[in-house]
Amino acid sequence: MRSRWSPSVFDATHELGDDQVTRLLQAAQWAPSAGNAQPWRYLVAPRGSRAHQVLVAHLSRGNSGWVPRASVVLLAVAVTEPDAKKPRDPAYAVHDLGQASAHLTLQAHAMGLAAHQFSGFDHDAVAAELGLPEHARLLAGIAVGVRGDPGAVSERDAERDSRERTRRPLAETAFGDAWGTPWPGLTES
Ligand SMILES: Cc1cc2nc3c(=O)[nH]c(=O)nc-3n(C[C@H](O)[C@H](O)[C@H](O)COP(=O)(O)O)c2cc1C
Predict the structure, then answer these.
(1) What is the CB < 6 Å shell around ligand 1?
(2) Cβ atoms of 75 and 101 closer than 8 Å
(3) Of 28, 114, 131, 172, which has fewest CB within 10 angstroms of its CB?
(4) Which GO terms describe its molecular function (predicted)?
């Protein structure tokens, strides 16, 4: 888990096999969820597919250079059931989608693939063009592929991959008996 990261330089000629994409989806399939509701859905958009073309047309400027090069993008969607007898707080659908996507992302890493999640695109336009129903909320994309040659991409995208990665200290994340008081058992920061 510690060696996972989000590369921005993908090999634009690499293709993922259907069996590999299926393996990624299986990792998400077996994530835990509130009441086993499994509120995640994924639209699979291999480079060149119609879904991919729709997404690429609506990427933010910062994502338009690197996302299209990935072999496949999985569009992550949370579904809620507002008409259920006992509707669950819709926040859990979002929570559980994130958890399924984390499983998928770590599975990609375990398979030697690069995975980079992103939210910078016009969600409403993509959702409308791909026919998402009312209670399906498109939240993110997961670009998956293999790392490419930094010389083949813009300087900006290549530079991102050499930036230092940082994290907030655990003492600011893990609290003990009161909010804001670091859990005293921490052995590392
Ligand atoms: C929900 C979500 C949205 C993100 N959106 C973008 C994005 O639009 N563009 C981008 O380049 N990276 C995006 N990222 C990647 C984060 O910037 C990245 O995960 C974070 O900087 C930590 O880096 P690491 O994954 O290498 O540890 C997103 C990640 C997540 C989980």
Answers:
(1) 5-6, 62-63, 117-120, 140, 165
(2) no
(3) 131
(4) oxidoreductase activity
Would you mind telling me the total number of residues written for the chain in this entry?
A: 189
CA of 141 to the centre of ligand 1 (A): 10
Q: Domain for residue 12, yes or no?
A: no
Q: How far is the CA of 106 from the centre of ligand 1 (A)?
A: 14
Q: Kindly state whether residue 155 falls inside one of the protein's structural domains.
A: yes
Residue with CA nearest ligand 1 atom 10: 118
Q: Which range (22-31, 62-71, 132-141, 152-161) has the least confidence?
A: 152-161
Q: What does the alpha-carbon distance between residue 66 and residue 86 come to, in Å, rounded to a whole number?
A: 42
Cβ 97 vs Cβ 139: under 8 Å: yes
pLDDT at 98 over 90: yes
Which of 2, 3, 6 maximizes ligand 1 atoms within 8 Å of its Cβ, making it the mutation to test the pocket?
6
Domain membership of residue 120 (yes or no) is yes
Q: What is the CATH number of the domain that holds 96?
A: 3.40.109.10
Between the CA of 148 and the centroid of ligand 1 the distance, in Å, is: 18
d(CA 66, CA 103) in angstroms, rounded, equals: 23
